[in-house]
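Batch manifest, entry 17 of 40.
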Amino acid sequence: MHLAYPAVLSALLFCTGLYGVLARRNAILVLMSVELMLNAVNLNLVAFDVWLSRTAEETLHSGQALTLFTIAIAAAEIGIGLAIVLAVHRNRGTSDIDRLRDTAEGHETDGPGPDARPAEATEKAEATA
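Output type: C-alpha cells
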C-alpha cells in the first residue's frame, strides 16, 4: 500500500477532530474529538514506521512504540477527563463549556441569583428597620 492513503486518512481524521474541539459545546464531545485527533496521530506513526522499515535495513519499530505510549496517555486522559466532567456536571448541572466558563468568570446569564431580592422586599425591610 502506498504511504499517501493512510496519510490522507490521518489528515481527514485529524481535521474532523480539530473541528470537533473548536465547534462543540459539550465537554464529552470535546474529549471524543481529542481522542479522534490522537488516533489520527497513531495512524500516522504506524504508517511511517512501516514505510521506513521497508527502506531501512534495521527495523527498530519506534513508531509502534510511540503509538503504544500515545494509547496509554490517551487512556489516562480519558479517565481523568471523564471524572472531571462528571464531577462538574454533578455540581453545576451542565457540561456546556460556554456556560461553565461564564459561571467561572462570574457572569450569570440565567437571571438573578438566590441572594437577589425584589426591590419591594428591600424597601419593606428598610421601612421596618
